Amino acid sequence: MPTLLHIDSSADLTTSRTRALTAVFAETWTSRGADHTVVYRDLHRDQLPHLQSVAQHWPPRLRGGVEVPASAAALQQELLSELLAADVVVIGAPLYNYSMPSTLKAWVDHIHVPGITSPFDEATQPLAGRPAVVISARGASYDAGSPSESWDHGSAALKIVLGESLGMEVTVVATSRTLADVVPALGSEAAAREFEAAREQVRELASTL
Known about the structure:
It is a single chain. This protein has a single domain, classed as 3-Layer(aba) Sandwich (Rossmann fold). Helices cover 35% and strands 15% of the residues. The protein contains five helices and five strands; from the N terminus they run E-H-E-H-E-H-E-H-E-H. Strands 2-1-3-4-5 form a five-stranded parallel β-sheet, sandwiched between helices. Helix 3 (102-111) links the parallel strand 3 (88-92) and strand 4. Helix 1 (17-30) runs parallel beside helix 5. The longest helix has 21 residues, at 188-208. It is globular and about 55 Å long.
């Protein structure tokens, strides 16, 4: 039974581009058949705490006897189990101040665990080769050759964590100029074209992964 882990993190509950695009992904995924299931986690509505102990960066066998509160350990295990059980992951990752939302960063801190999800001692990469689709919405322009081309540190960090460390096959779908309605110089027509292109790319990925 193919399972999609669908994650949203936008604080905008009404007009979010990333929420709209992850919804398209999930709808296309489930349209492939009743066996295509979805596990959904909204990191804004149901916010995760920060790590309670440095020991949570490691699996129990590598914690040197440091105890993690039972509730914190149970939540981290729940998040790890969700991720490890997923065949495909789609993440709504709007760009906030050139990086990912803090709610999404808290999720990353819980699931990036050397010795469980990334290599350390005898552990390998249990998620190697599994698809992860990162959907990024950026308020301004990040066109190739522009001064701000490399300012999207949110997608870059997720590509490192999910791709390099966890070994997943990461695809970034980006739509920019989302502030064109309030900053006309960005170009509302260009913004609309980017969003439509992103929507078509999302449908294609959800149909084939």
